[in-house]
Amino acid sequence: MTEEGSQEGKKTILVVDDEPDIRKLVGAMVSKCGYAAITADSGEHALTLYKHHKGPVELLITDVVQPGMSGPMLADKLTQIQPDLKVLYISGYDNTHLVRKYVVEKGHALLAKPFTLEALRNKVQELLGEVGQALSPADRR
Hints:
The protein is built from five helices and six strands, in the order E-E-H-E-H-E-H-E-H-E-H. By secondary structure, it is an alpha/beta fold. Strands 1-3-2-4-5-6 form a six-stranded mixed beta sheet, sandwiched between helices. The longest helix is centred in the N-terminal third of the chain and has 13 residues. The model has no long low-confidence stretch (mean pLDDT 86).
């Protein structure tokens, strides 16, 4: 478990991916964009972290395909608890069915892997209803 999400005044994003390198990278990208990140290696782990986290979680970023609980299953469970939770799926697979079922019908979003820091930031800001701010050249590294 990594909980960088106790930073006062920052919106909290729960990042879930079973691949350690991707999980760490996306968590670091979220932090670099100015948000607090909580990272989990599975859907089950994410549910536990969510239930024990003090304060709101504004956004779930989850891989689609994971062992055990898939990203869409996790999103369904968390949005039952918190209906206003925003969801961003990240995936390297062709997701035609997923896009239809979860993105269009449920109002979730999808970002295809690989993606840049700027693409992630833009999508997160869009989902959280924030005014887009350009990254400084130093942040693009």
